[in-house]
Structure formats: structure tokens, C-alpha cells
Amino acid sequence: MRRSGAMRILLAIDDSRESSEAARFLAHLSRAERVIVLHAIEPPWPGYPVLPEYPMLAVETARELCEAAEEQMRTEARRLLDRIRSVLPQDLGSVSMAIETGPPAEMILKTAEAGCADLIVMGARGREAMPEMALGSVSHRVVTHAACPTLVVRTALPSLRRVLLPVQGPADSAAAVRFLAARPFRHPVELTVLTVLPAARSVWDETPPAVETLQTRAMEQAREFVTNVASQVSARGYPASGVARTGFAVEEIGRESEESGADLVLIGCRAKREASRFLLGSVAYAVLHRVPRPILVFR
Q: How far is CA 271 from CA 13, 32, 180, 282, in A?
């Protein structure tokens, strides 16, 4: 992401309420250099002129049927884009509309790469079940493979004042500071920097003093770490405080987001290119599915 703050944003939409909320969320982001509003259509029979479901049809009939279906989808897509344009905030920057044909996640990633997007913004339909996580929703595939930060919006957000920033280590915190240095938000926000020490199951009925000493030392170092990160963030104009917790990361992130009244969770993640590594225990992906707030995943 560039340091100028004038982002190139790709807003990926469908006909869901969440997409409309994603469009409205742009009011909380810095004025963009360019916004592309994308809707991907996926014809029901991508392999025409031969339709496996209707082998009795002549090739010409099959072709006409598919072309008519695709044209109807394009007509509906244009209406959708017009509707989304009407809810976009004022003073947004240059806005263009695009309709692409193909699998939505693939088209979003392709368009983001071609347009050198600094941020992808999209809606997600509520909390997806674990089996769906394994299969991969559109939002999940985009977050997994995108080279740029991705913002996933589920609900309306009247204001953006408090941001929760979970960090796991120096690499995480450095990436977060770089992202925030680009001034992505339109109005000032207050950050809570959170780190979570893993909860260890005790093998003793009573924890030995030596172990208690180590645990105390670990918590002190964790607090020192988040205090340092909060200082770095504050130096860039964001009021920030640090919090260290012990427990399971996703649960503690959810708990802290509730207690701090966070409007947004800002969390780091590394892009994954290999399908075999899809969804292997990433905290960011679990947060995406389990924490009911807008989630901005940065790289």
C-alpha cells in the first residue's frame, strides 16, 4: 500500500445487503485516487454450446439459450451497479463500474491485480459454518489469495472511531505500522493494540513457583511489546493503548472487541498461494468467520 493515502480501491459487490453496507463503508476511508466497482457474473453453463443438462438441444439452440441467459445477467448487473452507485458516499474520488464474466473470486483477484488495487472492499453474508470455511466462500478465497489488504463488511457501521489491532509479533506490528502510515481512514481513530499469550494446560495440581515466575515474566514481556507497538502507532497520529491477554487468540480477540467497543478489527495475514495450505489454522481466517465486526486484513 502506498504512503500517500490516496488509495486505489476495488469494491466487489453482489446483490446482498452486505454489499450495500460495504459500499457505504467507503465513507470511513480516505478519499480514493480511484474506485472500481466490480460485479462478476457467472453464466450457468460456462461450457456451451454443449449443455450437459440438455443434450437433446441443437448447438444453435443451446448457444442462443446461453447468450440470452448471459444477457439477462448483464442487464441485472447494470441495475445492481446503478443501485450501488446511488449509495456510494460523496467526495469519493474517480469511480468506474465494471462487469466481468467468470468465477467471482477469480475475477476479483484478477481485477485487483490489473488495477494495482491498494485495498479490496467486499461484503460477506453473516457467519459461515465451518464446512463452508473448508470449501471456501468468495470472501474467504479473496482474503486467502489477495496480494493487497482486504476489508470484509457484514453489517452497517454508522461511525468508525475505535479499532482493535491484534498483533502476534514484530513482523505483524511492523506491517500494521506501515499500513497505518498510509492514512487509510478518513477520520481519526483510536486503537487498542492486543497480543494474546497462548493458554497452556497445566500438568500440575498446583503450579510450581518457578513456572509461575516464567508465566509472570512472559506476561511482562507481552505488555512491554504491546506498549512499544502502541507508542509507534501513537507517533503516527493514532491515540493507542496496549492490552495483553492469556487464552485462545480468537476468543480473546472477540472478547476484547466487545469490551473495547471496537468498530473494526485490523489484523495481519500472509497471502497463501497454494490450495493445499488453504485454511490451516490461521488466526486471521478464524477471526474473519467468528468475530461479528468488519475485518480489515492487511499484508
A: 22, 24, 19, 11
- Per the domain annotation, does 1 fall within a domain? no
Question: Domain of 101?
Answer: 8-298
* Structural domain count, the chain: 1
Span 25-42, pLDDT tens digits: 999 999 999 999 999 998
Backbone angles phi, psi at 292, to 5 degrees: -80, 60
Q: 262 lies in a domain?
A: yes
Q: What is the CATH number of the domain that holds 229?
A: 3.40.50.12370
Q: What does pTM read for this prediction?
A: 0.86
Q: Are 243 and 227 in contact (CB under 8 A)?
A: no
CA 179 and chain centroid, separation: 14
Nearest-angstrom CA–CA distance, 168 and 197: 9
pLDDT digits (tens, 9 = 90+) for 234-272: 999 999 999 999 999 999 999 999 999 999 999 998 655
Cell numbers that stand for 78 in this block: 447494470
Of the candidates 283, 286, 282, 284, the one whose C-alpha atom is nearest the C-alpha of residue 296 is 284
Residue 127 lies in a domain: yes
- Answer yes or no: is 3 within a domain: no
Backbone angles phi, psi at 223, to 5 degrees: -65, -40
Helix, strand, coil percent content, the chain, rounded in steps of 5:
40, 20, 35
Residue 166: closest CA among 25, 295, 26, 28: 295
Rounded-to-10 torsion of CA 236, 160, 155, 260: 80
